[in-house]
Specification:
By secondary structure, the chain is mainly alpha-helical.
Length: 106
């Protein structure tokens, strides 16, 4: 990293330092995403790697753990992801229309 920062500083000035850090952080983010994706795949199964990663307790849940949370009470919409709240987009999820008196679509 110090060699890269020095080289980029000589070539691009102060912007080179930022370029070096952005490159470093991008590489670390890539490794983090790969580890998050590959880790669960390696732990599943009955291979030597899975047993080593799982440790002495091969069960994914521990005794006395809290039960999982319930699923959503209604169908999740894209408007929910953008924090529009209970008002949502104004479209009735049952009919697909903004008109409150419309009939469900087939």
């Amino acid at each position: 990293m110090p060699v890269t920062v020095t080289h980029n500083f000589e070539q691009f000035g102060t912007f080179g330092i930022a370029l070096s850090f952005v490159s470093w952080f991008t590489g670390m983010a890539f490794l983090l995403v790969v580890a998050a994706a590959v880790g669960p795949c390696l732990v599943e199964g009955n291979t030597a790697v899975a047993r080593w990663l799982s440790g002495p307790d091969a069960e994914p849940l521990t005794d006395g753990a809290a039960p999982p949370l319930p699923g959503p009470a209604r169908r999740v919409r894209l408007a929910d992801a953008f924090g529009r709240g209970a008002g949502g987009s104004g479209v009735d999820p049952n009919t697909g229309s903004t008109d409150p008196g419309s009939q469900p679509t087939a």
